[in-house]
Amino acid sequence: MTDLIVVSNRGPVSYAREGGARVERRGGGGLVTALRGLLSRHRVTWIASALGEEDRAVAEENGGEAFDDVSRDGAPYRLRLVAHDPAAFELFYHVVANPLLWFIHHYLWDLGSQPDVDVRAWHEGYERVNRGFADAVLAELERSPGAGVFFHDYHLYLAPAFVRAERAQVPLAHFVHVPWPQSDYWRVLPDPLRRAVHGGLLANDVVGFHTERWAGNFARSCADLVDARRDGDTLHHGGRSTLVAHHPISIDPSEFDELAQGADVAAAAGRLFEKRPEQVVLRVDRTDPSKNVVRGFRAFGELLARYPEHRGRVRMLALLDPSREAIPQYVEYRAAIEREAAAVNERFADGDWSPVDLRIRDDFPQTLAAYRDYDVLFVNPVSDGLNLVSKEAPLVNERSGVVVLSENAGSHEELGDWVVSVSPFDVVGQADALHAALTMDPGERGRRAAAIAAHVRAHDVSAWLEAQLRDLSRVTLRQ
Amino acid sequence: MTDLIVVSNRGPVSYAREGGARVERRGGGGLVTALRGLLSRHRVTWIASALGEEDRAVAEENGGEAFDDVSRDGAPYRLRLVAHDPAAFELFYHVVANPLLWFIHHYLWDLGSQPDVDVRAWHEGYERVNRGFADAVLAELERSPGAGVFFHDYHLYLAPAFVRAERAQVPLAHFVHVPWPQSDYWRVLPDPLRRAVHGGLLANDVVGFHTERWAGNFARSCADLVDARRDGDTLHHGGRSTLVAHHPISIDPSEFDELAQGADVAAAAGRLFEKRPEQVVLRVDRTDPSKNVVRGFRAFGELLARYPEHRGRVRMLALLDPSREAIPQYVEYRAAIEREAAAVNERFADGDWSPVDLRIRDDFPQTLAAYRDYDVLFVNPVSDGLNLVSKEAPLVNERSGVVVLSENAGSHEELGDWVVSVSPFDVVGQADALHAALTMDPGERGRRAAAIAAHVRAHDVSAWLEAQLRDLSRVTLRQ
Questions:
Q1: pLDDT reading at A320 higher than 90
Q2: pLDDT band for position A35 (50/70/90)?
Q3: Is the peptide bond before A171 cis (omega within 30 degrees of 0)?
Q4: Is the dihedral of CA A413, A173, A106, A327 positive or negative?
Q5: Which residue of B has its CA nearest to A107?
Q6: How far apart, in whole angstroms, are the C-alpha atoms of residue A182 and residue A222?
Q7: Which residue of A122, A180, A184, A406 to mutate against B (max B Cβ within 10 Å)?
Q8: How far apart are CA A308 and CA B308, in angstroms?
């Protein structure tokens, strides 16, 4: 058992007050679930932002220091909540991380008019918050000098270099959960900013991605933008070496099996449809422009226009989590989603059948019930680091449902042989793919569904976690 | 002297009727000017689209065959106008070439919502028109079996493969005048379409670009998307080899010197300002979203906000050619340009001074007069294959004007040492750059202006043309 410092903007737990009492809310996000397995095997200190008011109160009560907590599984770990300056955090989170970096990672900027890069927000927000994280890491390293540090995602690109400047030898690893765009698109950031991103990541000993494609893009953009030299899976830069790895994240199959059999899911299944249509096309996403929900509805409309035999018989069920509603682009995108769903319904609704059933709310039991019950799962992102839905849903689906998957979803690298592939920008092609999926013969459906489920069981989240630790010990040994 | 077949969508001449009589209009575009030098040294047949009604009449009178013409310089050449099916040409030009391909080349799509790739327009428009060009080339090759073929630009990506299928040995060269985007952005096109683009270009013996950056992007996207193998400056694919070259296009300095001294320019100079402001910031562009005009006005507003000493003394003169006004995105962009100019004027106008002088019309003498008279030339494109304005204007400028140049303009590769570089997405940075340019000391201004003019004189369009011919004879000899 070794000491590990995990750093992510969002921590495994958040605090709130209910009826005057403090309550702990355990996060269910993919990253937190994935990392939970670490806690039973290592002495983990988790550093995260104090996000809400009660988080800040907890941080203050502990004098900004780490305190003891236990995970959902009962494993002990230490948690250190960093209470950033609120104005800096606002710039960090709602200007730089989202939308600026998120939109760069997913090729979402309408570059003819947006963005106007806010360099002040970079320095006064993103840089300051990263400095705050780095200071917390350095304080924990005083306590555990032998620890390795494991940074997560696009919120923390600068922190590794701040830590490295003080600690030449500490093992640093970073996992990037979003797609890595190619170097031209990084040029949306002025030169000093894009250098800081790449230089920050190259202060790590390991940088990991979900796919070979994103890892390859990273290696090239380091060569293009900061003159890193590539040697196999290693980048050399500034007198240091960084291993570039790719390990697709996954899920905990036994946990999903159990969740899907829960009483709340059975209840949700009973409420899922008033009258089930003959076939169900399901999508499950956040209301994020990277998820391509609007084109998805257009594609469903095209399906009904081109193949009228599906009218009255197939319904698209869209279960969407509201996302980042403080950001104007997300508010606009949600409105566009609602308009397009209404347009398709207006065009094709007939009697008591309407084609699109759009539900925008966070309701995980309902999602699990729908996972079990779809005929076609539709996952058409513009770009996606991995896309866990495409792994979760086939695992618990009970109808040998067919997966229609964007070639730009990270999971396509693993699942491509068993899905119906689509280009996210070809709406007519998506309509044809939905038709192919809806009319696929049962033997073929069964063969493909079984292959996906078997793949996910064989490549679960513990395999992902072990790969990270292997990489980290590999570079630690090298030192 | 050898036989050369030049192929471009727009030819060196177009026909119209004036008062019942046919008139020939000689194009003044950069490409036509650049290629004119070929006509005196080679037996050239130029194949182009019959664009207007009178072009189609000329094509019909010649039975679709080539006919004799003479260039502006009096050099004889043959012209073959291809009268495409009008519906196919409409899809080719106004759906696929613009905006689909143009927006891909310049990273301009707002990918969260646009485009819906129109695969039917690709096949029934772009492919058919390219087939028409290839048929014309093959007919001319019957007549001149030893000729080389020189294709131009993004309208003609498929024609080389159609020619190659019939003629394994004919030397084919292609010059791409737009930026080459990286492979992820080509994925906006579904797989068969992006393969056709890359496979079509790789049917050539030479593919040329303006910059090393675009040539490098092309080599990589061929490796990523069609598994081409790279060996130095040569790509191997499908049993063939293609030389990837980069030669920045340029201008004819003596022609420009002469033009700038014309009586029409002197007259335009007299009319240029009612009262000349102390300093003039000039921009000359088409109304194209790639040109970044809107952010340019915002940057000028930022300049006046951050450095109030320029108020009442500096004016931005924006001379814009109306462009592609049949395409909705261009109509919207022109409206955005007009709105932003009005907003800056409303915010800062004072007495008889207003900051932005926006003139949207095609008036070349006025442009030349303004070239001679600016203090700062502002060229901030989102992305630009080369940008001839940044070469033309400094050549004839008489005030040691400073060039503020986007790092994403192709000409930045040549002129970077002598300009004030800007990121096109950093509006505040552009304001600071304009301030630096406006306040640069005279010695430094003079040194930089002289260096740019000397570079353009030493690297003129004839050098560009000779480089093309050298590449073509190099691969011809290799065969």
A1: yes
A2: confident
A3: no
A4: positive
A5: B111
A6: 10
A7: A184
A8: 64
From chain A, the residues in CB contact with B183 under 8 A are 182
- CATH code of B104's domain: 3.40.50.2000
Strand partners, B76: B70
Q: What are B356-372's pLDDT values in tens digits?
A: 999 999 999 999 999 99
Q: How many CA atoms lie within 13 A of A234 on its CB side?
A: 10
> Cα separations (Å) of A474 from A206, A467, B141?
10, 10, 62
A179 plus A201 within the same structural domain? yes
B181 Cα to chain A: minimum distance (Å): 8
Residue A191 sits at the chain B interface (C-beta within 8 Å): yes
C-alpha B438/C-alpha A333 separation (Å) is 41
Query: Given the DSSP bridges, would you call strands A67-70 and A76-82 parallel, antiparallel or unpaired?
Result: antiparallel
Kindly state whether residues B230 and B271 are assigned to the same domain.
no
- For B192-216, the pLDDT digits (tens) are 999 999 999 999 999 999 999 999 9
**In a shared domain, residues A257 and A298:** yes
Q: For chain B, how many structural domains are there in total? A: 2
The pLDDT-based confidence of A297 (bands split at 50, 70, 90) is very high
Does residue A123 sit in the same domain as residue A159? Answer: yes
Q: Residue A72 is encoded by which pair of tokens?
A: 């959902």
Three-state SS for A210-273 is: CCHHHHHHHHHHHHHHHCCEEECCEEEECCEEEEEEECCCCCCHHHHHHHHCCHHHHHHHHHCC
Q: How many CB atoms lie within 10 A of CB A398?
A: 11
Mean pLDDT of A72-89: 94
Interchain CB contact of B396 with A (< 8 Å): no
Q: What is the pLDDT of residues A157-209, one digit of tens each?
A: 999 999 999 999 999 999 999 999 999 999 999 999 999 999 999 999 999 99
Looking at chain B, the number of H-run helices and the number of E-run strands are 20, 18
| Whether pLDDT at A477 is above 80 | no
Cβ separation of B191 and A382 shorter than 8 Å?
Answer: no
Q: List the structure tokens of A128.
A: 């300051």
- The gap from C-alpha A110 to its chain's centroid, in whole angstroms, comes to 22
List Cβ neighbours of B476 (8 Å cut-off, separation of 6 or more).
Answer: B148, B171, B205
Whether residue A117 and residue B423 make contact (CB cut-off 8 A), yes or no, is: yes
Q: Give dist(CA B85, CA B63) in Å, integer.
A: 15
Interface touch B220/A217, C-beta < 8 Å = no
E-strand spans in A160-205?
172-175
Q: Is B220 exposed, middle or buried (0-12, 13-18, 19+ CB in 10 A)?
A: middle
Regarding whether A400 and A278 lie in a shared domain, the answer is yes
Displacement of CA A49 from its chain's centroid (Å) = 18
Q: What residues make up the domain containing B467? A: 3-249+463-478
Contact A457, A395 (CB under 8 A): yes
As given in the structure block, the two tokens for residue A275 are 């009258």
Same domain, B436 and B353: yes
The phi and psi torsions of A350 (rounded to 5 degrees) equal -150, 120
pLDDT (mean) for A410-435: 98
SS3 state at B455 = helix
Tell me, yes or no, if A286 comes closer than 8 A to chain B by beta carbon. Answer: no
Q: How far is CA B20 from CA A222, B54, B132, in A?
A: 63, 11, 30
User: A170 and A279, same structural domain?
Assistant: no
- Reported in sequence order, the residue ranges of A102-233 that DSSP labels E, i.e. its strands, are 148-152, 172-175, 206-209, 229-231
The pair phi, psi for residue B149, each rounded to 5°, is: -120, 135
What residues of A are in contact with residue B336 (Cβ under 8 Å)?
113
Same domain for A356 and A259, yes or no, is yes
CA angle (A287, A36, A455) in 5-degree steps: 70
Whole-structure pTM over 0.90, yes or no? yes
